[in-house]
């Protein structure tokens, strides 16, 4: 139990450290990284499937920047934060101007948890207590509207 707490705290510290290290407050909001364009889908237990266009944040710098300074996003858009190996992921909303739902994707491609209705500028870390292979961000309220829940299947290009 103590080892899990230490690993959890190290993951939080490293995640937040990456955000501070790579975020340059002097960078103009219009100078977003050139994110790779891709997509993902989520399939509910009843077979209903939802498709999204997405920006992919692969590098540490891209992941630290994420959706900061984005003023709007369509309901069929999102962002994927894929990881080369499963890890504990810590997210927050600093400099994020739109409310979001965060979907934590387990190894095997199922939803492990959803942090719904994350509010802009909130610096409280959001962490699922298990390792994930990706985190997906979509507009706040969509997870509830679409009836998404733990165990739903997520498909996206992992290592393209």
Give a summary of the structure in a few sentences:
This protein is α+β, with helices and mostly antiparallel strands.
Number of helices: 3
Strand order across the largest sheet: 6-5-8-3-2-1-9
Largest sheet: 7 strands, mixed
CATH superfamily: Protein of unknown function DUF192
Structural class: alpha+beta
What is the CATH T-level topology?
Jelly Rolls
Shape-level CATH architecture: Sandwich
Record field, number of beta strands: 9
Distance between the termini: 36 Å
Estimate nothing, just give the exact number of structural domains: 1
What's the helix-strand series?
Answer: HEEHEEEEEEHE
Mean of the pLDDT scores?
A: 86
Helix content: 10-25%
Shape from CA axes? globular
Based on CA atoms alone, the radius of gyration comes out at 15 Å
Structural summary, described in words:
The protein has 160 residues and is α+β, with helices and mostly antiparallel strands. It has one domain: Jelly Rolls (Sandwich), CATH 2.60.120. The protein is 19% helix and 35% strand. The protein has three helices and nine strands. The chain has helices at residues 2-22, 60-65, 142-145; strands spanning 36-43, 49-56, 77-87, 90-91, 100-105, 111-118, 126-127, 132-139, 153-155. It is globular and about 40 Å long.
């Amino acid at each position: 139990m103590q080892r899990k707490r230490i690993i959890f705290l190290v993951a939080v510290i490293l995640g937040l450290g990456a955000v501070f290290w790579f975020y340059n407050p002097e960078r103009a909001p219009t100078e977003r990284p050139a994110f790779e364009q891709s997509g993902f889908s989520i399939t509910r237990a009843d077979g209903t499937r939802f498709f999204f266009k997405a920006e992919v944040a692969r590098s540490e710098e891209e992941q630290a920047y994420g959706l900061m300074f984005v003023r709007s996003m369509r309901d069929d858009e999102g962002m994927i934060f894929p990881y080369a190996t499963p890890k504990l992921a810590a997210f927050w909303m600093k400099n994020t101007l739109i409310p979001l739902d965060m979907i934590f994707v387990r190894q095997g491609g199922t939803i492990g948890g959803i942090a719904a209705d994350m509010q802009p500028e909130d610096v409280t870390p959001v962490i699922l207590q298990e390792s994930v292979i990706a985190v997906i961000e979509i507009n706040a309220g969509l997870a509830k509207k679409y009836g998404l829940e733990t165990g739903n299947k997520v498909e996206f290009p992992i290592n393209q």
